Amino acid sequence: MTANGRKIAIYDTTLRDGAQGEGIAFSAAGKLRLAERLDQLGVDYIEGGYAGSNQKDMEFFRQVMSKPMQHARVVAFGATRRANTRVHDDPMLQSLLAAGTPAVAVVGKSWAMHVREVLRTTADENFAMIRETMQYLKDHGREVLFDAEHFFDSYKESPDFALAALQAAIDGGADSVVLCDTNGGSLPHEIHAITQAVVAAVRVPVAIHAHNDIGLGVANSLEAVRAGASQVQGTINGFGERTGNANLIPVIASLELKMGCTAVQSGQLRTLREVSLFVDELTNQRHDSRAPYVGQSAFAHKAGQHANAVQKNPRTFEHIDPAAVGNERHILISELSGGSNVLLKAIELGVGKHASPEEAREILAALKRLESKGYTFEAADASFRLLIQKVLKEHKPFFELEGFRVIVEKRGKEEPCLSEATIKVRVNGEMEQTVADGDGPVNALDSALRKALMRFYPEIAKVFLTDFRVRILDPEEATAAKTQVIIESGDGRETWGTVGVSGNIIEASWEALVDSVEYKLFREEEKARRQGATPSA
Description:
3 domains
């Protein structure tokens, strides 16, 4: 069966299955914000939580149902009735109804091993649990999705038993059946063959719910679609227990851009990167720079020949237009770079637009000279921009260092370390000396530098350090080893990276700090020039 031209329903379970991932948690307000964003994206179902398991999920259902979604159907998740319990008496089913959602997802056992060893009941009772639960919820006007837990493991052991579990759900009125690769260990060819067999055997829509335990969650989801599944379940950024669920970001992009399907609202595909970043920010996770389609490195080019080819025709080394998913091309600079990389990177950074081939060679020579000393600029665009300006003799220092001193003191075994930095700088011929404390020597140095410059450049008050990374370049030298420091800074609108290298970690940090502040001041100067204003100092 071809997938081309089909509408594939997207079922998001980030708020339920995704929240089971290690280190993933949503506040009550965060759950509502994510639901609104997913609705805007155009997913078809939003699974909001496990009905009855906790008060926060039930409160979410109450709030989200008070303001109906524009596109998505909110789903409450639960399980079949307990063994040897009437549906009317099962508290889980009462919680599912109390959630008030238009759709419910009910997980049930489809593997004989689980029926014997987990439920400890008979096959007939298990099938009755499934059938009666479906019928009870349908009688109360709900759309019912049956999640066949461990379906693929079951089918590989006994196709008859696995299909009988699905048939019990269908007999009870289930609107669709969800084939779950709960252990995440199936291979794409297995998913395809089994899904194809199920699609041919049942009369209701079939969905796929894949986990990522062997790194094939996305591939398995796409194979299921190719085999006839009409719904894909997963999470944004692949959150979930163990190694996670199928990542809906590459699933959606691949369905639309590679398989010709419709997955989300028209025009929303270009917001995929923004959605991915939004969810990471909401859960306080560091974004995966290598994430397919939406990572910062997804369309990054380092080798000189690649950059040159992309400049001539992007299709030579890019499988899609980065803008299709809200991303952009990045040219990386290293000792592997050629003149094309240097010129493209300079243009990307807004400098050197009119650099000659000779000047490009000078920039490349300076780059390679510095990299031989341990500098790297792939994560330090701001330092590379300053390097270009220095080579092109366009650099104007905003201040000059006269000297600094950093003191680290520990006044007792149980006392914390104290750090104090003293800085003396000259700005437009005027001397400024300041002292500042910090949580550590670099923090103290950063605070002292800002304090010294604040009178001349008040705009640096908005600059803050967002990351600080240290790398030992020649560990065989032990404590005398050369140290590389990468600093990431931001001002609330953009972030930038700078680099410093020295045998002394404080001096390496100072270099990176100076580049960070100078970059901010250059950006403010450019903005003032564009607006016709006079910059500070």
